[in-house]
Amino acid sequence: MEIINTKVATLSNFEVMNHLQNVKEGKKRNKGQLATITYETLRYLESTPCKHQTPESIENCLKALKHYNLTKNEKLMLINTPPITPLEIQLMVEESEERLTEEQVEEILQIITEHFPHVRKIEAEVEEEVEGT
Q1: Which secondary structure element, helix H or strand E, spans residue 38, and what is its range?
Q2: What is the pLDDT of residue 1?
Q3: pLDDT at 4 over 70
Q4: Which listed residue, 21, 43, 62, 99, has the most CB atoms within 10 A of its CB?
Q5: CA–CA separation, 10 vs 30, rounded Å?
Q6: 111 CB-contact burial (10 Å; exposed 0-12 / middle 13-18 / buried 19+)
Q7: 28: exposed, middle or buried (C-beta count within 10 Å: 0-12, 13-18, 19+)?
Q8: What is the dihedral of CA 78, 84, 87, 89, to 10 degrees?
Q9: Quick one: pLDDT at residue 126?
Q10: Where does the RNA polymerase Rpb4/RPC9 core domain lie (predicted)?
């Protein structure tokens, strides 16, 4: 088998979770390794931010991020692991210090929290931990 275009099949965690849930609920019961892999992967994905995402929230977030000249992989990382600090954006966006201003980083964080409200709860928990130490 030959891979012609490696970038065609990039899926978000939400899309993978959705597909695996459909496989799990399918009429045919999977046996053996496929059932185990499906179960374990779903169990992991349900503990990540994608559990709270919707197709609409992802689509709207991507539209809002369109103006920041981010690559597909950078957008995918922002969707899969929504950042809550500027440092996380620096880790996800290649050469972010040259490509993005501080204001743009703050705008991206605002877009993420606007489209993924569950991120606000995580952010509040992190702030409580920082204040408690």
Answers
A1: helix 33-45
A2: 42
A3: no
A4: 62
A5: 25
A6: buried
A7: exposed
A8: 20
A9: 54
A10: 1-119
How many of the other CB atoms lie within 10 Å of CB of 121? 10
**For the residues 39-65, what does the mean pLDDT come to?**
92
Per-residue confidence (pLDDT) for residue 36, from 0 to 100 = 85
Q: How far apart are the first and last CA of the chain?
A: 54
CATH for 54-132 is: 1.20.1250.40
Mean pLDDT over each residue of the chain, to the nearest integer:
84
Phi, psi (rounded to 5 degrees) for 24 = -65, -40
Q: Which residues make Cβ contacts (< 8 Å) with residue 71, sequence separation at least 6?
A: 94
User: Helix, strand, or coil here: 90?
Assistant: helix
The runs of H, that is alpha helices, within 81-117 are 86-92, 96-99, 102-115
Structure tokens at 4: 């012609």
Which amino acid, one-letter code, is at 69? Answer: N
- Cα distance between residue 96 and residue 77, in whole Å: 14
Domain locations in the chain as residue ranges? 13-51, 54-132
